[in-house]
Design brief:
Layout lengths: L13 H7 L5 H16 L18 H13 L1 H8 L9 H16 L3 H12 L8 H13 L9 H5 L3 H10 L4 H9 L4 E5 L6 H10 L5 E3 L3 E4 L16 E3 L6 H6 L6 E5 L5 H9 L3 E6 L2 H14 L4 E4 L15 E7 L13 H5 L2 H19 L2 E11 L8 H10 L3 E9 L8 E8 L3
Parallel strand pairs: 5-6, 5-8, 6-7, 8-9
Antiparallel strand pairs: 1-3, 1-4, 2-3, 9-11, 10-11
Helix pairs in contact: 2-3, 2-5, 2-6, 3-5, 4-5, 5-6, 5-7, 6-7, 9-10
């Protein structure tokens, strides 16, 4: 993402915004989305708060659509703004223009979009950029057919280096990976089979006016995403939201009942919960971030599950404590580029740089080598990423096997993103130490 001038204006309090603009208006949604996207333009990740807004300030659904839509199409918006802006404006103003460009491409009432964007500009930075926003957007309307065919980022909605890397790794499939990353994500559910069955939950969905299709041993695919508040029995722990591709982790590791199991890098706890829902285990969920450790605990409590949660670095000796010294099964869901889940986190593809992938590879190697030492002879370790870059996947495992002759690769799977699931990689390793 291009370096932008730092903003020195603090965001207006919610009350000021709600007093200035009607909460249900497109202008209010523009302001909230522009502030959040402005932080991305300054190099900050959206994190868990991306797209959120207080209902009394702006419509949360409208904010999320503007924010995520503009980020997915950032390559297009950036290319269209380049010839129209002599000097880069404040990040929030540039973000407002990008959100408005996205809305112009998805709404037929261009007049309303421009007027609401100008109203939003009146709230940002004392309204000094209302004329700029109005002029740029009206110039866009006068030049709707601007040619962008030679701009890779505009054509594929991904950075140039990202496109080149996928084209080299998947010469026959890379356009489909990019296309999947540009679509809205599917909604996968995981049924808690300690409390109900897939068949019974499908009936509950129908009773709530929803439909779904069974997938795998505990999965359901919803054709149309809905808020979790509409999912019957969610608060009671009957079901969790989890991508169908992510559900393969517990199925691939498949620890025997009573096993000592370690889930390294466990937050937010979905894979740990799935393992516990499948059978009784002595499981430790390890996570380096204390706040995310609390999230694991909240998820376990909702689902009625019990396990030990430890806060520590998976690459550090005995981060999980002294007991047990070794584990029968380990899930190494390592930090990665997240290149397989960019449709859920569209800021990632614009914030990542090639050097970041190399940094993840080094971290993955440290974690993998450390966890391997904690595996019992005959035990199994599932290496998992949500990446589609070979350096983090097959190449990482090939290098590990060269370092560890006692390691045997039992299975390997790359799940490329499609209409039903995101992108994941799994390698099941067994320790054949005598």
């Amino acid at each position: 993402m291009k370096t932008q001038r730092k903003s020195i204006c603090a965001s207006a309090p919610s009350g000021l915004l709600s007093a200035s603009l009607p909460a249900a208006s497109l202008a209010a949604a523009f302001v909230v989305a522009a502030r959040q996207m402005g932080r991305v333009l300054e190099g900050q990740s959206l994190g868990q708060e991306g797209g959120r807004a207080e209902p009394g300030v702006a419509d949360p659904d409208q904010v999320k659509d503007l924010l995520f839509g503009a980020l997915r199409r950032y390559g297009v918006g950036d290319a269209r703004l380049a010839p129209l802006l002599r000097n880069p404006p404040w990040p929030e103003i540039r973000a407002l223009l990008l959100c408005a460009l996205y809305r112009l491409e998805t709404w037929t009432d261009a007049h309303t979009v421009v007027n609401q964007a100008v109203e939003a500009a009146g709230v940002l930075h004392g309204g000094r950029y209302k004329a700029l926003v109005n002029g740029v957007l009206r110039n866009v309307l006068r030049q709707p057919g601007q040619a962008l065919s030679e701009n890779v980022a505009a054509l594929h909605w991904h950075p140039d280096w990202w496109v080149a890397r996928l084209e080299a790794a998947y010469p026959d499939y890379w356009p489909r990976i990019l296309a999947a990353g540009n679509r809205l994500p599917p909604l996968g559910l995981r049924v808690n089979r300690r409390k109900t069955s897939v068949a019974a939950y499908l009936e509950a969905l129908r009773g709530a006016g929803l439909s779904g299709e069974a997938r795998g041993e505990a999965g359901i695919l919803l054709p149309t995403p809905v808020p979790v508040a509409r999912l019957p029995g969610f608060a009671e722990g009957l079901v969790s939201v989890q991508d169908l591709g992510a559900q393969r982790a517990a199925e691939r590791l498949d620890p025997a009942p009573g096993s000592q199991v370690l889930d390294a890098c466990a937050a937010p706890g979905g894979k740990s919960a799935h393992l516990l829902e499948r059978g009784d285990l002595n499981l430790i969920a390890l996570e380096i971030d204390p706040a995310r450790c609390r999230l694991i605990g909240e998820n376990f409590a909702r689902l009625g599950l019990s396990a030990t949660i430890r806060c520590g670095d998976a690459s550090a000796p005995n981060a999980w404590g002294r007991t047990p010294a070794r584990f029968d099964a380990i899930l190494a869901d390592v930090p990665c580029s997240a290149s397989g889940v960019v449709r859920r986190h569209p800021d990632i593809k614009w914030l990542r740089q090639p050097r970041d992938v190399l940094s993840f590879v080094r971290t993955q190697r440290r974690i993998l080598d450390r966890l391997w030492q904690a595996l019992t002879p005959g035990g199994k370790l599932l290496y998992a990423t949500c990446s589609v870059f070979p350096e983090e996947n097959g190449e990482q495992i090939a290098a590990f096997l060269r370092r560890r002759p006692e390691a045997v690769l039992e299975s390997e799977e790359i799940c490329l993103p499609d209409d039903e699931h995101d992108g994941f990689y799994y390698a099941l390793l067994r320790n054949e130490t005598l």
